Amino acid sequence: xxxxxxxxxxxxFAKTGGLADVSGALPAALARLGHDVRIVMPKYAAVDAxxxxxTAGEEIVVRPAGRESRFTLWSGRLPETAPEAPVPCGFLxxxxxxxxxxxxxxxxxxxxxxxxRFSAFCRAALEVPRLWRWQPExxxxxxxxxxxxxxxxxxxxAREPGGAPPxxxxxxxxxxxxxxxxxxxxxxxxxxRNYFTPxxxxxxxxxxxxxxxxxYSTLLNTVSPTYSREIQTPEFGNGLEGVLRxxxxxxxxxxxxxxxTQWSPERDAHLPARYDARDVTGKRACKRALQKACGLxxxxxxxxxxxxxxxxxxxxxxxxxxxxELLQLELQLVILGSGDPALERALEAAAKRAPAKLSxxxxxxxxxxxxxxxxxxxxxxxxKYEPCGLNQLYSLRYGTIxxxxxTGGLADxxxxxxxSNLAAGTATGVVFETASGxxxxxxxxxxxxxxxxxxxxxQMIAAAMAADFSWDRSAREYAALYDRxxxxxGHE
Length: 492
Ligand code: ADP
Description:
Blueprint: E1 2-6, H1 18-32, E2 36-42, H2 49-52, E3 55-62, E4 69-77, E5 88-93, H3 95-98, E6 105-106, E7 109-110, H4 114-125, H5 128-132, E8 138-142, H6 143-155, E9 167-172, E10 180-182, E11 202-203, E12 206-208, H7 210-216, E13 219-222, H8 225-230, H9 234-237, H10 241-246, E14 251-253, H11 281-293, E15 303-310, H12 316-321, H13 323-328, E16 332-339, H14 341-353, E17 358-362, H15 366-375, E18 378-381, H16 391-397, E19 401-405, H17 408-413, H18 419-424, E20 430-432, H19 437-452, H20 454-466, H21 471-490
Parallel strand pairs: 1-2, 1-8, 2-5, 8-9, 9-13, 13-14, 15-16, 15-18, 16-17, 18-19, 19-20
Antiparallel strand pairs: 3-4, 4-5, 6-7, 10-12, 11-12
Helix pairs in contact: 1-21, 4-6, 6-7, 11-15
The chain binds adenosine-5'-diphosphate.
The site of adenosine-5'-diphosphate (ADP) has 17 residues, from β15, β16 and α15.
């Protein structure tokens, strides 16, 4: 299958979050399955052309609403993909739009011309296949930044005489980010006025670029089955639940995979000791080293880890609500996170009050994230919503029992320690329902009880480490969805 994959960030070239990880790993996995998949992304200042061996090529000129934008198409390929399954990457360079710090923001503020930047990118991206002399059967766009391509395919797409437009798939990675812009910017999109109505791109008086993906894709998906259902409700839909419900039959969920070459305790270069499912003794050395590094007493107390963006989404405020009670329990808590300054300050103040129990690291620190996954006994993720979540998947592989809220991808990937799941040997974590501090506290108490029952605990660790969330599996599900989209587009 020929797949054009569009994303505003792709690891390792440029990354702000999970979207980049998916955009690097999924195309690579599809190529390994034998598909001809190619990526197009912006060439930001952060993209290191010499390091990745990128070369400059032809020019693409677009003139949305009479304003000319010139892009240079740079070429490269995803590194570390096998020569027999390469993934070509096109990078669209435009100094005015992309030669600046920050992919979407600078100093915590969105770039004011984001609509202009990404709409021009979407227009130019559609010209890339022509330069490659290659026609995709499926165009796969991700999140609001690339959503417009799916509409431009209909309004501005160049077609071979008699040729059908390609099938399209749109993936929602986080409905919390919609690409909202003031109505005055609508003319910059170069679309007829009838695309600014509540049935099209208008959203309560603003332009909503995500809607282009929701409305004009052949099929759409999110990154877990539960999240795909949740976003059809007012609680999680952010006002788009009606639009999503109307497309219920075209909407599905596919869990993200894990890059087990980076995240496996048997070969993780960041760890002081390695271990695997057959022999977990190395995990104890990881725990001791983590306690030492964090200035916590080196002792047998259960150690709970958290690695997270500090935002309300992640339920950090719930933990703060009951932090004093939590720290009364026989446990230690290590938190690595950055984000909301108020949450950062509150956590650091708490750590000063209880230095023997709580260690807080205000940073984005990849090696420490690995050491926390390996050295902790439990991992806490009390998210209010969670499209997929990666950290609980890492925790499972590291034999670190996740305590999660029953939402989105957390609900789909952690098997709750109910009496029947424990009896069946399938339990891999503790799952709680309510988004409250009280519920977090109760879940931690329950987890500590299980921790004290050594044979139960060992069985849970074994079940957790055996869970398989490899990209290969998810890529097969995406390939099946592309097939379905091609069939559906043929009937449009
Ligand atoms: P989200 O994409 O919503 O932030 P995920 O759980 O899907 O949440 O992915 C978060 C990724 O970012 C994980 O790989 C996690 O280890 C990493 N991460 C988050 N915060 C930090 C941090 N402070 N330091 C290092 N890595 C972090």
